[in-house]
Protein backbone atom coordinates (compact mmCIF):
# COMPACT_ATOMS: atom_id res chain seq x y z
CA UNK A 1 0.00 0.00 0.00
CA UNK A 2 1.55 3.30 -0.98
CA UNK A 3 1.52 6.42 1.20
CA UNK A 4 -1.18 8.03 -0.90
CA UNK A 5 -3.68 5.21 -0.39
CA UNK A 6 -2.83 5.15 3.29
CA UNK A 7 -3.63 8.82 3.59
CA UNK A 8 -6.93 8.42 1.79
CA UNK A 9 -7.87 5.57 4.15
CA UNK A 10 -6.88 7.67 7.16
CA UNK A 11 -8.92 10.67 5.97
CA UNK A 12 -11.91 8.46 5.22
CA UNK A 13 -11.73 6.71 8.60
CA UNK A 14 -11.62 10.09 10.29
CA UNK A 15 -14.60 11.23 8.26
CA UNK A 16 -16.52 8.09 9.12
CA UNK A 17 -15.84 8.45 12.84
CA UNK A 18 -16.84 12.12 12.68
CA UNK A 19 -20.18 11.38 11.03
CA UNK A 20 -20.86 8.39 13.27
CA UNK A 21 -20.23 10.41 16.45
CA UNK A 22 -22.27 13.37 15.22
CA UNK A 23 -25.21 11.20 14.20
CA UNK A 24 -25.16 9.20 17.44
CA UNK A 25 -25.04 12.36 19.57
CA UNK A 26 -27.71 13.91 17.37
CA UNK A 27 -29.96 10.94 17.92
CA UNK A 28 -29.57 11.25 21.70
CA UNK A 29 -30.36 14.97 21.38
CA UNK A 30 -33.48 14.29 19.36
CA UNK A 31 -34.63 11.26 21.33
CA UNK A 32 -36.84 13.11 23.86
CA UNK A 33 -38.63 14.99 21.08
CA UNK A 34 -39.13 11.85 19.01
CA UNK A 35 -40.32 10.02 22.12
CA UNK A 36 -42.95 12.68 22.74
CA UNK A 37 -44.16 12.52 19.14
CA UNK A 38 -44.29 8.73 19.29
CA UNK A 39 -46.17 8.85 22.60
CA UNK A 40 -48.82 11.01 21.01
CA UNK A 41 -49.78 7.93 18.97
CA UNK A 42 -49.58 5.34 21.77
CA UNK A 43 -52.17 4.11 24.24
CA UNK A 44 -51.85 5.19 27.87
CA UNK A 45 -50.70 1.73 28.89
CA UNK A 46 -48.08 1.67 26.15
CA UNK A 47 -46.41 4.88 27.40
CA UNK A 48 -45.64 3.54 30.88
CA UNK A 49 -42.27 1.95 31.29
CA UNK A 50 -41.61 1.99 27.57
CA UNK A 51 -38.79 3.84 25.87
CA UNK A 52 -39.53 2.52 22.38
CA UNK A 53 -39.99 5.07 19.62
CA UNK A 54 -42.30 2.91 17.50
CA UNK A 55 -45.95 2.79 18.59
CA UNK A 56 -47.78 -0.52 18.16
CA UNK A 57 -50.49 1.23 16.22
CA UNK A 58 -51.19 4.85 15.32
CA UNK A 59 -53.88 6.10 17.69
CA UNK A 60 -55.13 9.24 15.97
CA UNK A 61 -58.01 9.44 18.47
CA UNK A 62 -55.46 10.86 20.98
CA UNK A 63 -55.42 13.96 18.80
CA UNK A 64 -59.19 14.15 18.63
CA UNK A 65 -59.46 13.79 22.41
CA UNK A 66 -56.66 16.27 23.04
CA UNK A 67 -58.10 18.85 20.66
CA UNK A 68 -61.48 18.71 22.40
CA UNK A 69 -59.77 19.52 25.71
CA UNK A 70 -62.75 19.98 28.07
CA UNK A 71 -65.49 20.09 25.41
CA UNK A 72 -66.43 23.71 26.27
CA UNK A 73 -63.24 25.15 24.82
CA UNK A 74 -61.09 23.38 22.26
CA UNK A 75 -57.42 23.73 21.46
CA UNK A 76 -58.53 25.71 18.42
CA UNK A 77 -59.17 28.64 20.75
CA UNK A 78 -55.77 28.30 22.43
CA UNK A 79 -53.96 28.13 19.09
CA UNK A 80 -55.82 31.21 17.89
CA UNK A 81 -54.91 33.10 21.08
CA UNK A 82 -51.24 32.09 20.90
CA UNK A 83 -50.99 32.95 17.23
CA UNK A 84 -52.62 36.35 17.71
CA UNK A 85 -50.43 37.28 20.66
CA UNK A 86 -47.24 35.95 19.07
CA UNK A 87 -47.72 37.56 15.66
CA UNK A 88 -48.76 41.00 16.93
CA UNK A 89 -46.03 41.14 19.61
CA UNK A 90 -43.38 39.93 17.13
CA UNK A 91 -44.42 42.47 14.53
CA UNK A 92 -44.23 45.26 17.11
CA UNK A 93 -40.92 44.07 18.54
CA UNK A 94 -39.16 43.74 15.18
CA UNK A 95 -40.46 46.90 13.51
CA UNK A 96 -39.84 49.21 16.44
CA UNK A 97 -36.46 47.61 17.16
CA UNK A 98 -35.40 48.36 13.58
CA UNK A 99 -36.52 51.99 13.79
CA UNK A 100 -34.80 52.49 17.15
CA UNK A 101 -31.66 50.71 15.96
CA UNK A 102 -31.42 53.07 12.98
CA UNK A 103 -31.63 56.03 15.35
CA UNK A 104 -28.84 54.65 17.54
CA UNK A 105 -26.62 53.51 14.69
CA UNK A 106 -26.84 56.43 12.27
CA UNK A 107 -27.96 59.66 13.96
CA UNK A 108 -25.32 61.41 16.12
CA UNK A 109 -27.84 63.03 18.45
CA UNK A 110 -26.99 64.46 21.82
CA UNK A 111 -27.21 61.90 24.62
CA UNK A 112 -26.99 58.96 22.27
CA UNK A 113 -24.31 57.04 24.16
CA UNK A 114 -26.11 57.61 27.46
CA UNK A 115 -29.37 56.10 26.21
CA UNK A 116 -27.55 53.27 24.46
CA UNK A 117 -25.86 52.45 27.76
CA UNK A 118 -29.27 52.49 29.47
CA UNK A 119 -30.50 49.99 26.92
CA UNK A 120 -27.54 47.75 27.69
CA UNK A 121 -28.23 47.83 31.39
CA UNK A 122 -31.84 46.77 30.84
CA UNK A 123 -30.52 43.76 28.89
CA UNK A 124 -28.90 42.54 32.11
CA UNK A 125 -31.81 43.42 34.37
CA UNK A 126 -33.74 40.37 35.58
CA UNK A 127 -37.44 40.51 34.72
CA UNK A 128 -38.25 39.75 38.38
CA UNK A 129 -37.42 43.37 39.30
CA UNK A 130 -40.15 44.85 37.15
CA UNK A 131 -42.55 41.90 37.37
CA UNK A 132 -44.37 42.95 40.56
CA UNK A 133 -44.74 46.71 39.88
CA UNK A 134 -45.65 46.04 36.23
CA UNK A 135 -48.35 43.68 37.40
CA UNK A 136 -49.67 46.27 39.84
CA UNK A 137 -49.67 49.02 37.19
CA UNK A 138 -51.46 46.83 34.64
CA UNK A 139 -53.85 45.70 37.34
CA UNK A 140 -54.66 49.35 38.22
CA UNK A 141 -55.36 50.39 34.64
CA UNK A 142 -57.58 47.36 34.09
CA UNK A 143 -55.37 45.48 31.64
CA UNK A 144 -55.39 42.16 33.53
CA UNK A 145 -57.33 39.52 31.58
CA UNK A 146 -56.52 41.25 28.30
CA UNK A 147 -53.63 40.64 25.90
CA UNK A 148 -52.44 44.24 26.25
CA UNK A 149 -49.82 43.67 29.00
CA UNK A 150 -48.34 40.89 26.86
CA UNK A 151 -48.28 42.89 23.63
CA UNK A 152 -47.87 46.63 24.27
CA UNK A 153 -44.39 46.52 25.89
CA UNK A 154 -42.99 44.89 22.75
CA UNK A 155 -43.89 47.92 20.68
CA UNK A 156 -41.13 49.74 22.53
CA UNK A 157 -38.58 47.46 20.89
CA UNK A 158 -36.57 44.64 22.47
CA UNK A 159 -33.08 45.44 23.77
CA UNK A 160 -31.43 42.34 22.35
CA UNK A 161 -32.86 42.95 18.87
CA UNK A 162 -31.91 46.63 18.93
CA UNK A 163 -28.35 45.65 19.81
CA UNK A 164 -28.30 43.03 17.03
CA UNK A 165 -29.56 45.51 14.44
CA UNK A 166 -27.28 48.37 15.52
CA UNK A 167 -24.30 46.06 15.02
CA UNK A 168 -25.66 45.10 11.63
CA UNK A 169 -26.40 48.65 10.45
CA UNK A 170 -22.90 49.80 11.43
CA UNK A 171 -21.49 47.43 8.83
CA UNK A 172 -23.46 49.03 6.02
CA UNK A 173 -21.30 51.65 4.31
CA UNK A 174 -22.25 55.21 5.19
CA UNK A 175 -21.76 56.11 1.50
CA UNK A 176 -25.12 54.51 0.72
CA UNK A 177 -26.87 56.84 3.14
CA UNK A 178 -25.00 59.84 1.77
CA UNK A 179 -25.82 58.95 -1.82
CA UNK A 180 -29.50 58.69 -0.91
CA UNK A 181 -29.28 62.02 0.87
CA UNK A 182 -27.84 63.67 -2.25
CA UNK A 183 -30.73 62.18 -4.21
CA UNK A 184 -33.06 64.07 -1.88
CA UNK A 185 -33.99 61.43 0.66
CA UNK A 186 -34.72 62.47 4.22
CA UNK A 187 -33.95 60.21 7.21
CA UNK A 188 -37.24 58.26 7.27
CA UNK A 189 -36.80 57.61 3.54
CA UNK A 190 -33.16 56.51 3.95
CA UNK A 191 -34.29 54.16 6.70
CA UNK A 192 -37.18 52.66 4.74
CA UNK A 193 -35.61 52.39 1.29
CA UNK A 194 -31.89 51.94 1.98
CA UNK A 195 -31.18 50.56 5.43
CA UNK A 196 -34.29 48.50 6.21
CA UNK A 197 -34.01 46.22 3.14
CA UNK A 198 -30.29 45.70 3.79
CA UNK A 199 -30.66 44.43 7.36
CA UNK A 200 -32.86 41.51 6.35
CA UNK A 201 -30.73 38.82 8.05
CA UNK A 202 -30.92 40.58 11.41
CA UNK A 203 -34.65 41.22 10.95
CA UNK A 204 -35.23 37.55 10.30
CA UNK A 205 -33.08 36.53 13.26
CA UNK A 206 -35.22 38.82 15.42
CA UNK A 207 -38.43 37.40 13.95
CA UNK A 208 -37.36 33.84 14.75
CA UNK A 209 -36.30 34.64 18.30
CA UNK A 210 -39.34 36.78 19.01
CA UNK A 211 -41.69 34.20 17.55
CA UNK A 212 -40.40 31.40 19.64
CA UNK A 213 -39.98 33.41 22.84
CA UNK A 214 -43.54 34.66 22.58
CA UNK A 215 -45.01 31.31 21.50
CA UNK A 216 -43.32 29.56 24.43
CA UNK A 217 -43.90 32.36 26.92
CA UNK A 218 -45.46 30.98 30.07
CA UNK A 219 -44.88 33.46 32.87
CA UNK A 220 -46.56 36.38 31.06
CA UNK A 221 -49.82 34.53 30.27
CA UNK A 222 -49.71 32.92 33.74
CA UNK A 223 -49.69 36.38 35.34
CA UNK A 224 -52.15 38.17 33.11
CA UNK A 225 -54.62 35.64 31.69
CA UNK A 226 -57.03 34.01 34.11
CA UNK A 227 -59.96 33.16 31.88
CA UNK A 228 -59.61 29.77 30.13
CA UNK A 229 -61.08 31.30 26.97
CA UNK A 230 -58.00 33.55 26.73
CA UNK A 231 -55.43 30.88 27.50
CA UNK A 232 -52.46 30.46 25.23
CA UNK A 233 -51.32 26.99 24.19
CA UNK A 234 -48.59 26.85 26.84
CA UNK A 235 -51.00 27.81 29.61
CA UNK A 236 -53.55 25.24 28.42
CA UNK A 237 -50.93 22.48 28.19
CA UNK A 238 -49.82 23.19 31.73
CA UNK A 239 -53.43 23.07 32.99
CA UNK A 240 -54.00 19.92 30.95
CA UNK A 241 -51.13 18.18 32.74
CA UNK A 242 -52.03 19.29 36.24
CA UNK A 243 -50.36 16.76 38.53
CA UNK A 244 -53.34 16.96 40.91
CA UNK A 245 -55.75 15.30 38.48
CA UNK A 246 -55.49 12.04 36.58
CA UNK A 247 -53.57 12.72 33.46
CA UNK A 248 -54.41 11.71 29.91
CA UNK A 249 -50.79 11.52 28.76
CA UNK A 250 -51.37 10.49 25.12
CA UNK A 251 -53.75 13.45 24.64
CA UNK A 252 -51.29 15.86 26.25
CA UNK A 253 -48.45 14.60 24.09
CA UNK A 254 -50.62 14.98 21.00
CA UNK A 255 -51.31 18.64 21.75
CA UNK A 256 -47.71 19.11 22.87
CA UNK A 257 -46.58 17.81 19.50
CA UNK A 258 -48.94 20.17 17.68
CA UNK A 259 -47.71 23.08 19.80
CA UNK A 260 -44.17 22.58 18.48
CA UNK A 261 -45.15 22.73 14.82
CA UNK A 262 -45.38 26.54 14.37
CA UNK A 263 -41.98 27.13 15.98
CA UNK A 264 -40.31 24.35 14.04
CA UNK A 265 -41.86 25.61 10.78
CA UNK A 266 -40.63 29.16 11.33
CA UNK A 267 -37.22 27.77 12.20
CA UNK A 268 -36.95 25.49 9.16
CA UNK A 269 -38.06 28.20 6.74
CA UNK A 270 -35.64 30.83 8.06
CA UNK A 271 -32.83 28.83 9.66
CA UNK A 272 -30.16 29.67 7.10
CA UNK A 273 -30.35 33.30 8.17
CA UNK A 274 -29.69 32.60 11.85
CA UNK A 275 -25.97 31.90 11.71
CA UNK A 276 -25.57 34.64 9.09
CA UNK A 277 -27.43 37.05 11.35
CA UNK A 278 -25.20 36.15 14.28
CA UNK A 279 -21.90 36.09 12.39
CA UNK A 280 -22.47 39.60 11.11
CA UNK A 281 -23.41 40.97 14.52
CA UNK A 282 -19.72 40.83 15.32
CA UNK A 283 -20.34 39.76 18.91
CA UNK A 284 -16.68 38.89 18.95
CA UNK A 285 -15.27 42.18 20.30
CA UNK B 1 -26.26 76.71 26.88
CA UNK B 2 -25.37 76.38 23.22
CA UNK B 3 -21.72 76.97 23.99
CA UNK B 4 -21.68 74.42 26.78
CA UNK B 5 -23.15 71.78 24.47
CA UNK B 6 -20.63 72.35 21.74
CA UNK B 7 -17.78 71.86 24.23
CA UNK B 8 -18.00 68.08 23.86
CA UNK B 9 -18.07 68.09 20.09
CA UNK B 10 -15.14 67.88 17.73
CA UNK B 11 -15.22 71.30 16.08
CA UNK B 12 -15.89 73.02 19.36
CA UNK B 13 -13.36 75.80 18.90
CA UNK B 14 -15.26 77.31 16.00
CA UNK B 15 -18.25 79.44 16.92
CA UNK B 16 -21.31 77.82 15.38
CA UNK B 17 -23.25 79.65 12.77
CA UNK B 18 -26.97 79.85 13.15
CA UNK B 19 -27.46 77.32 10.38
CA UNK B 20 -25.08 74.81 11.92
CA UNK B 21 -26.76 75.13 15.29
CA UNK B 22 -30.12 74.59 13.67
CA UNK B 23 -28.84 71.53 11.82
CA UNK B 24 -27.48 70.10 15.05
CA UNK B 25 -30.81 70.65 16.76
CA UNK B 26 -32.61 68.97 13.88
CA UNK B 27 -30.26 66.00 14.17
CA UNK B 28 -31.11 65.63 17.82
CA UNK B 29 -34.81 65.97 17.15
CA UNK B 30 -34.77 63.28 14.49
CA UNK B 31 -32.55 61.07 16.67
CA UNK B 32 -35.01 61.23 19.53
CA UNK B 33 -37.90 60.71 17.11
CA UNK B 34 -36.31 57.45 15.94
CA UNK B 35 -35.57 56.13 19.41
CA UNK B 36 -38.87 57.37 20.87
CA UNK B 37 -40.59 53.94 20.85
CA UNK B 38 -37.80 52.54 22.98
CA UNK B 39 -37.51 55.66 25.13
CA UNK B 40 -41.22 55.68 25.98
CA UNK B 41 -41.21 51.95 26.65
CA UNK B 42 -38.06 52.27 28.75
CA UNK B 43 -39.62 54.93 30.95
CA UNK B 44 -43.02 53.25 31.21
CA UNK B 45 -42.01 49.60 31.54
CA UNK B 46 -38.57 49.82 33.16
CA UNK B 47 -37.78 53.08 34.94
CA UNK B 48 -41.15 53.63 36.61
CA UNK B 49 -41.55 49.96 37.68
CA UNK B 50 -37.96 49.93 38.97
CA UNK B 51 -38.63 52.96 41.15
CA UNK B 52 -41.84 51.40 42.42
CA UNK B 53 -40.07 48.12 43.08
CA UNK B 54 -37.41 49.89 45.10
CA UNK B 55 -40.11 51.59 47.17
CA UNK B 56 -42.13 48.38 47.65
CA UNK B 57 -39.07 46.54 48.91
CA UNK B 58 -39.23 48.69 52.06
CA UNK B 59 -42.94 48.14 52.59
CA UNK B 60 -45.50 45.55 53.48
CA UNK B 61 -47.92 45.41 50.58
CA UNK B 62 -50.67 42.94 49.66
CA UNK B 63 -52.16 44.91 46.69
CA UNK B 64 -55.54 45.26 48.40
CA UNK B 65 -54.44 47.76 51.04
CA UNK B 66 -51.93 50.55 50.45
CA UNK B 67 -48.24 49.78 50.99
CA UNK B 68 -47.09 50.26 54.60
CA UNK B 69 -43.51 51.41 55.09
CA UNK B 70 -41.62 48.98 57.30
CA UNK B 71 -37.98 49.90 56.80
CA UNK B 72 -35.59 46.99 56.51
CA UNK B 73 -38.05 44.44 57.88
CA UNK B 74 -38.24 42.52 54.56
CA UNK B 75 -34.48 42.13 54.42
CA UNK B 76 -34.30 41.13 58.09
CA UNK B 77 -36.98 38.53 57.47
CA UNK B 78 -34.92 36.96 54.69
CA UNK B 79 -32.07 36.19 57.05
CA UNK B 80 -34.30 33.83 59.02
CA UNK B 81 -36.41 32.57 56.11
CA UNK B 82 -35.22 29.01 55.55
CA UNK B 83 -37.02 28.76 52.19
CA UNK B 84 -35.20 31.90 51.01
CA UNK B 85 -31.84 30.30 51.82
CA UNK B 86 -32.96 27.02 50.29
CA UNK B 87 -33.93 28.79 47.05
CA UNK B 88 -30.55 30.56 46.97
CA UNK B 89 -28.74 27.27 47.49
CA UNK B 90 -30.73 25.53 44.75
CA UNK B 91 -30.21 28.40 42.31
CA UNK B 92 -26.45 28.67 42.88
CA UNK B 93 -26.08 24.92 42.46
CA UNK B 94 -28.23 24.94 39.33
CA UNK B 95 -26.43 27.88 37.71
CA UNK B 96 -22.88 26.87 38.65
CA UNK B 97 -23.36 23.32 37.37
CA UNK B 98 -25.55 23.86 34.31
CA UNK B 99 -23.84 26.94 32.84
CA UNK B 100 -20.27 25.55 32.61
CA UNK B 101 -21.57 22.19 31.37
CA UNK B 102 -23.69 23.89 28.77
CA UNK B 103 -20.85 26.11 27.56
CA UNK B 104 -18.38 23.21 27.36
CA UNK B 105 -20.85 21.17 25.31
CA UNK B 106 -21.68 24.15 23.12
CA UNK B 107 -18.00 24.84 22.51
CA UNK B 108 -17.18 21.21 21.81
CA UNK B 109 -19.99 20.84 19.28
CA UNK B 110 -19.17 24.18 17.67
CA UNK B 111 -15.56 22.98 17.20
CA UNK B 112 -16.91 19.77 15.69
CA UNK B 113 -19.08 21.71 13.25
CA UNK B 114 -16.46 24.26 12.26
CA UNK B 115 -15.42 22.46 9.10
CA UNK B 116 -16.65 22.40 5.58
CA UNK B 117 -18.72 19.26 5.22
CA UNK B 118 -21.91 19.44 3.21
CA UNK B 119 -23.93 17.73 5.93
CA UNK B 120 -23.03 20.38 8.52
CA UNK B 121 -26.04 22.57 7.92
CA UNK B 122 -28.31 19.57 8.49
CA UNK B 123 -26.44 18.53 11.65
CA UNK B 124 -26.51 22.09 12.91
CA UNK B 125 -30.27 22.08 12.55
CA UNK B 126 -30.67 18.83 14.50
CA UNK B 127 -28.48 20.04 17.35
CA UNK B 128 -30.25 23.38 17.47
CA UNK B 129 -33.74 21.90 17.44
CA UNK B 130 -33.91 21.10 21.19
CA UNK B 131 -33.09 24.74 21.94
CA UNK B 132 -35.79 25.94 19.58
CA UNK B 133 -38.49 23.82 21.20
CA UNK B 134 -36.89 23.49 24.63
CA UNK B 135 -38.45 26.54 26.23
CA UNK B 136 -41.94 25.27 25.56
CA UNK B 137 -44.32 23.87 28.11
CA UNK B 138 -44.78 20.77 25.96
CA UNK B 139 -41.12 19.88 26.46
CA UNK B 140 -41.21 20.66 30.20
CA UNK B 141 -44.27 18.44 30.62
CA UNK B 142 -42.61 15.71 28.55
CA UNK B 143 -39.43 16.04 30.62
CA UNK B 144 -41.40 15.42 33.80
CA UNK B 145 -42.86 12.27 32.26
CA UNK B 146 -39.45 11.14 30.98
CA UNK B 147 -37.93 11.09 34.47
CA UNK B 148 -40.83 9.51 36.39
CA UNK B 149 -40.41 6.12 38.02
CA UNK B 150 -42.16 4.44 35.07
CA UNK B 151 -40.69 6.86 32.55
CA UNK B 152 -38.57 6.24 29.51
CA UNK B 153 -35.22 6.95 31.22
CA UNK B 154 -35.69 4.02 33.59
CA UNK B 155 -37.10 1.87 30.81
CA UNK B 156 -34.02 2.63 28.73
CA UNK B 157 -31.63 1.92 31.63
CA UNK B 158 -33.40 -1.38 32.28
CA UNK B 159 -33.21 -2.26 28.61
CA UNK B 160 -29.42 -1.87 28.55
CA UNK B 161 -29.11 -3.92 31.73
CA UNK B 162 -28.90 -1.25 34.45
CA UNK B 163 -31.70 -1.90 36.94
CA UNK B 164 -33.37 1.44 37.79
CA UNK B 165 -36.72 2.11 39.35
CA UNK B 166 -36.28 5.38 41.21
CA UNK B 167 -38.41 8.34 40.29
CA UNK B 168 -35.80 10.90 39.26
CA UNK B 169 -38.18 13.81 39.67
CA UNK B 170 -39.61 12.40 42.91
CA UNK B 171 -36.26 12.06 44.65
CA UNK B 172 -34.92 15.23 46.34
CA UNK B 173 -31.34 14.23 45.52
CA UNK B 174 -31.85 13.82 41.79
CA UNK B 175 -34.73 16.19 40.95
CA UNK B 176 -32.51 19.23 40.40
CA UNK B 177 -30.36 17.17 38.01
CA UNK B 178 -33.33 16.64 35.70
CA UNK B 179 -33.49 20.45 35.42
CA UNK B 180 -29.75 20.69 34.86
CA UNK B 181 -29.86 18.08 32.10
CA UNK B 182 -32.77 19.94 30.53
CA UNK B 183 -30.69 23.14 30.53
CA UNK B 184 -27.56 21.48 29.14
CA UNK B 185 -29.62 19.77 26.45
CA UNK B 186 -30.49 23.21 25.10
CA UNK B 187 -26.95 24.32 24.32
CA UNK B 188 -27.89 25.28 20.76
CA UNK B 189 -27.91 29.05 20.94
CA UNK B 190 -24.54 29.17 22.73
CA UNK B 191 -23.26 26.76 20.10
CA UNK B 192 -24.36 29.05 17.27
CA UNK B 193 -22.67 32.04 18.90
CA UNK B 194 -19.47 30.00 19.34
CA UNK B 195 -19.70 28.84 15.74
CA UNK B 196 -20.09 32.43 14.56
CA UNK B 197 -17.01 33.32 16.61
CA UNK B 198 -14.96 30.39 15.29
CA UNK B 199 -15.67 31.43 11.71
CA UNK B 200 -14.19 34.82 12.38
CA UNK B 201 -10.83 33.51 13.55
CA UNK B 202 -8.44 34.43 10.71
CA UNK B 203 -7.47 31.36 8.69
CA UNK B 204 -3.89 32.54 8.15
CA UNK B 205 -3.20 32.24 11.90
CA UNK B 206 -3.72 28.50 11.60
CA UNK B 207 -1.71 28.29 8.40
CA UNK B 208 1.19 30.14 10.00
CA UNK B 209 1.03 27.90 13.07
CA UNK B 210 0.96 24.79 10.93
CA UNK B 211 4.07 25.93 9.07
CA UNK B 212 5.73 26.42 12.45
CA UNK B 213 4.82 22.80 13.21
CA UNK B 214 2.16 23.40 15.86
CA UNK B 215 -0.09 20.38 16.38
CA UNK B 216 -3.84 20.35 16.93
CA UNK B 217 -3.65 20.82 20.68
CA UNK B 218 -1.16 23.68 20.40
CA UNK B 219 -3.24 25.41 17.75
CA UNK B 220 -6.31 25.09 19.94
CA UNK B 221 -4.60 26.42 23.07
CA UNK B 222 -2.67 29.23 21.40
CA UNK B 223 -5.02 30.39 18.65
CA UNK B 224 -8.60 29.16 19.02
CA UNK B 225 -8.99 29.62 22.75
CA UNK B 226 -7.52 33.15 23.02
CA UNK B 227 -9.42 34.28 19.92
CA UNK B 228 -12.64 32.91 21.38
CA UNK B 229 -12.36 34.44 24.85
CA UNK B 230 -14.56 37.47 24.01
CA UNK B 231 -17.30 35.09 22.85
CA UNK B 232 -16.85 32.88 25.92
CA UNK B 233 -17.07 36.02 28.05
CA UNK B 234 -20.29 37.12 26.33
CA UNK B 235 -21.87 33.66 26.60
CA UNK B 236 -20.82 33.23 30.22
CA UNK B 237 -22.49 36.45 31.36
CA UNK B 238 -25.66 35.87 29.35
CA UNK B 239 -26.02 32.25 30.46
CA UNK B 240 -25.34 33.01 34.11
CA UNK B 241 -28.10 35.64 34.12
CA UNK B 242 -30.40 33.12 32.45
CA UNK B 243 -29.40 30.47 34.97
CA UNK B 244 -30.13 32.69 37.95
CA UNK B 245 -33.57 33.66 36.64
CA UNK B 246 -34.78 30.22 35.48
CA UNK B 247 -38.49 29.85 36.12
CA UNK B 248 -40.73 28.10 33.60
CA UNK B 249 -38.96 24.74 33.48
CA UNK B 250 -38.64 24.61 37.25
CA UNK B 251 -42.28 25.59 37.64
CA UNK B 252 -43.52 22.78 35.40
CA UNK B 253 -41.07 20.02 36.27
CA UNK B 254 -41.46 20.64 40.01
CA UNK B 255 -45.25 20.76 39.84
CA UNK B 256 -45.26 24.50 40.56
CA UNK B 257 -44.06 24.08 44.14
CA UNK B 258 -40.37 23.25 43.91
CA UNK B 259 -41.11 19.63 44.84
CA UNK B 260 -39.90 17.31 46.19
CA UNK B 261 -38.91 18.81 49.58
CA UNK B 262 -38.10 22.15 47.95
CA UNK B 263 -35.19 20.54 46.12
CA UNK B 264 -36.12 22.37 42.90
CA UNK B 265 -37.32 25.59 44.53
CA UNK B 266 -35.30 27.98 42.38
CA UNK B 267 -35.10 31.63 43.39
CA UNK B 268 -37.46 32.96 40.70
CA UNK B 269 -40.02 30.31 41.63
CA UNK B 270 -39.93 31.22 45.32
CA UNK B 271 -40.16 34.92 44.45
CA UNK B 272 -43.17 34.19 42.24
CA UNK B 273 -44.85 32.22 45.05
CA UNK B 274 -44.33 35.05 47.54
CA UNK B 275 -45.82 37.59 45.13
CA UNK B 276 -48.68 35.75 43.48
CA UNK B 277 -49.59 33.02 45.94
CA UNK B 278 -49.21 34.88 49.22
CA UNK B 279 -49.53 38.41 47.79
CA UNK B 280 -46.45 39.62 49.66
CA UNK B 281 -45.48 42.23 47.09
CA UNK B 282 -43.08 44.02 49.43
CA UNK B 283 -41.17 40.88 50.37
CA UNK B 284 -40.89 39.63 46.79
CA UNK B 285 -39.72 43.09 45.62
CA UNK B 286 -36.99 42.94 48.26
CA UNK B 287 -36.08 39.47 46.97
CA UNK B 288 -35.88 40.85 43.44
CA UNK B 289 -33.33 43.44 44.55
CA UNK B 290 -31.20 40.75 46.19
CA UNK B 291 -31.26 38.99 42.81
CA UNK B 292 -30.10 42.20 41.10
CA UNK B 293 -27.33 42.47 43.67
CA UNK B 294 -26.20 38.88 43.07
CA UNK B 295 -26.23 39.27 39.29
CA UNK B 296 -24.50 42.65 39.56
CA UNK B 297 -21.72 41.28 41.78
CA UNK B 298 -21.19 38.26 39.56
CA UNK B 299 -21.09 40.34 36.40
CA UNK B 300 -18.67 42.74 38.08
CA UNK B 301 -16.39 39.87 39.09
CA UNK B 302 -16.40 38.45 35.57
CA UNK B 303 -15.74 41.90 34.10
CA UNK B 304 -12.93 42.58 36.60
CA UNK B 305 -11.19 39.29 35.92
CA UNK B 306 -11.81 39.59 32.19
CA UNK B 307 -8.70 41.80 31.77
CA UNK B 308 -6.68 38.73 32.66
CA UNK B 309 -8.30 36.22 30.39
CA UNK B 310 -10.25 37.96 27.65
CA UNK B 311 -8.13 38.72 24.66
CA UNK B 312 -9.09 41.66 22.46
CA UNK B 313 -7.28 42.40 19.25
CA UNK B 314 -6.36 46.03 18.89
CA UNK B 315 -8.40 47.26 16.01
CA UNK B 316 -7.03 50.00 13.86
CA UNK B 317 -9.16 52.55 12.12
CA UNK B 318 -12.60 51.06 12.53
Q: What would your notes on this structure say?
A:
The complex is a heterodimer of chains A (285) and B (318). Chain A folds into 2 domains: 3-64; 67-278, MetI-like fold (Orthogonal Bundle), CATH 1.10.3720.10. With 285 residues, chain A is mostly helical. Chain A has 14 helices and no strands. In chain A, helix 4 packs across helix 8 and helix 13 (233-240) runs antiparallel to helix 14 (249-279). Chain A has helices spanning 3-39, 44-47, 61-68, 75-106, 112-124, 127-140, 148-151, 159-170, 174-182, 187-198, 200-216, 219-224, 233-240, 249-279. The radius of gyration of chain B is 26 Å and the shape is flat. Chain B has 14 helices and 2 strands. Chain B has a two-stranded antiparallel ribbon. The model of chain B is unreliable at 1-11 (pLDDT under 50). Chain B has helices at residues 2-6, 18-56, 73-80, 82-113, 120-134, 137-146, 152-159, 175-185, 188-198, 203-211, 216-244, 248-253, 267-276, 281-309, and strands spanning 59-60, 68-69. Chain B is mainly alpha-helical. The interface between A and B is large, with 95 and 100 residues.
**Portion of residues within helices of chain B:** 55-70%
Radius of gyration of chain B: 26 Å
DSSP strand tally of chain B: 2
**How many domains make up the 3D coordinates of chain A?**
2
Outline of chain B? flat
Record the strand order, biggest sheet of chain B. 1-2
Order of helices and strands of chain B: HHEEHHHHHHHHHHHH
CATH class of the largest domain in chain A: Mainly Alpha
Instruction: Label the structural class of chain B.
Output: mainly alpha
Strand count, sense and barrel status of the largest sheet of chain B are: 2 strands, antiparallel
Under CATH, the topology of the largest domain in chain B can be stated as MetI-like fold
Please state the overall shape of chain A, judged from the principal axes of the Cα atoms.
flat
**Helix proportion of chain A:** over 70%
The CATH architecture designation of the largest domain in chain A is: Orthogonal Bundle
Amino acid sequence: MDAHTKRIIKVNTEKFIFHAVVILLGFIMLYPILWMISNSFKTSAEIFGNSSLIPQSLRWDNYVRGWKFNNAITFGTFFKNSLFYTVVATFGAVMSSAIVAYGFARIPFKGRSFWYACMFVTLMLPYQVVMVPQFIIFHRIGWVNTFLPLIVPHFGGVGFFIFLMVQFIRQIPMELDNAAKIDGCNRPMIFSYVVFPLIKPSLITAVIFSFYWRWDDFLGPLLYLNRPRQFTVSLALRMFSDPQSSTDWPAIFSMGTLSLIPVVLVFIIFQKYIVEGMVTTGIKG
Amino acid sequence: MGKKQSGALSNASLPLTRGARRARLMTSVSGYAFISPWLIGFLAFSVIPILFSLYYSFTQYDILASPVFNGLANFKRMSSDTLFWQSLKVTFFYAFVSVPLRLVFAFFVAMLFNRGTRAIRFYQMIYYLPSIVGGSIAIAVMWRRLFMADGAINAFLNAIGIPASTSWIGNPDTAIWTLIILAVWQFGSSMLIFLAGLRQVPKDYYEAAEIDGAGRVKRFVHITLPQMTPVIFFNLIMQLINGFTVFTQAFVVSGGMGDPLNSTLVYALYLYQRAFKYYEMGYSSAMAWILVLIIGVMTAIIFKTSDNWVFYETKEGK
